[in-house]
Amino acid sequence: MAAVNILIVVDVQNCFIAGGSINGADAEKNIPIAKLQLSCKQINDIIELIDDSKNIKTHVYFTRDLHPRNHASLEGEGTNTKKNIVEFGNFFPNHCRNLARNCKYTDNANHDTPLEPLIEDATKSPTTINNLLNNTEYKIIFQKNNFNNNTHINKPIFGTDLSYIFYLSKLADNIHSLTQNSLTEANKYTIGLKNSKYQGKPLYDNLHFATDNIKYGNIQFNQVTKGEYCKYESYSAFNYHYEYKNNVKTQIPVLDMSTNFSTGLFESILKNYTEGIINITICGLVGTICVLHSIVQGKLLWENLYKRKSNPKITINFIYSLKGTLFLDFEEINDLIQTDASLALTKAKTLIIQQINKSYPITVIQKIAFQLLDFNGNYVANFVGNIGTSKDGKYEAGKFVDVSVKTGGYQQKYLKYKQKYLELKNMQSLL
């Protein structure tokens, strides 16, 4: 049985790209061309991953943050500080908000309801989009690939929608169909939370599921909305794994979880399979937060919950793709992607390990493994080892093992034994 290949594109939305609300209220007024070009390259890379003929995809899932307007993780909620926002600690700037949903809190925390939404939370001006997309420098990457579809650029675009840069590409019609009318109640292509169920504790039964899909050739496109419960956060595409209590973000240990915390993504992937190999490749925004948590949480949930309970004949491999992924600006990787990909890879590996160690100080040590694709989509390394803390509080960190080094070692052993064989054979011929 051939392996199944699935791609998950995490949170490539207007609110996260250049000019989006994650960058502040004035972000749309002065957007550097270099950042726009980088966003264009990301869309190109994602399309190349989708079109990869060596790893033909059966499904592509696009995830979207869709917070209530005063979600517990957002600025203005509770006792957030500028430091917390800058370092992305407990709180984040207002972004990706569904203004139709307003949380009601019963704890003692101070949750202010923002009265004036940022434009990215509502709609982008068609004039602004036209000005950007008609910029020669902005379009140059797409012209190289003959991506010139401008069918949808005159239409208002929600900040929570998938990136409007897709509208320059050959996926324009697919992406528009996938996300249209999906703010007030998720459409038939969506896995997401029922409209009235966002106040309480995560409950898998409160999800509605895609009843159809968008076809791109033989590949099925669906979307997953996340971040919808008022006091719970899902950096992971697979599950809600943080809870806010009195303005403090606390991670929920995987071993304490049930499928109630699911976003519905795992269930959608597994519903058609009872055995075989499933390769899940993950890319998107941003590398050290939602992409990384999707990899780690996905792996932990699979090994501790889904595989153990009902799918012992299925093997799932998780693949972190740097191709199609961007990082936070202050992490100083994005600027290197096109100028020094080798250095960008080194920095990315270091940051990924540091973030795993920082984000998973859980009491039970867990072994995880995943593959790493570089910024060109080449398989370059495996992450192997432990996450969590030992009894003395020290991290049991995993590490990346370069595939080239490992392969080189085997190659050297092969050449050594081959040389000995030839020497013995030569000696026998002399006898």
Helix-strand category? alpha/beta
Describe the global form. Answer: globular
Instruction: Tell me the helix content.
Output: 25-40%
Report the radius of gyration as a whole number of Å.
Answer: 23 Å
**Highest CATH level, the class:** Alpha Beta
Q: N-to-C SSE series?
A: EHEEHEEHHEHEEEEEEEHEHEHEEEH
Tell me the number of structural domains.
1
| Proportion of residues in extended strands | 15-25%
Query: Gap between N and C termini, in Å?
Result: 51 Å
CATH T-level fold name: Rossmann fold
Describe this structure in words.
This protein is of the alpha/beta class. 29% of the residues lie in helices and 21% in strands. The chain contains 9 helices and 18 strands. Strands 1, 2, 7, 8, 9, 10, 14, 15, 16, 17 and 18 form an 11-stranded mixed beta sheet that branches. Strands 11-12-13 form a 3-stranded antiparallel beta sheet, with no helix packed on it. The chain is globular and about 55 Å long.
Please describe the structure with a list of short key phrases separated by commas or semicolons.
single chain, 431 residues, alpha/beta, Rossmann fold, eleven-stranded mixed β-sheet, three-stranded antiparallel β-sheet, 21% strand
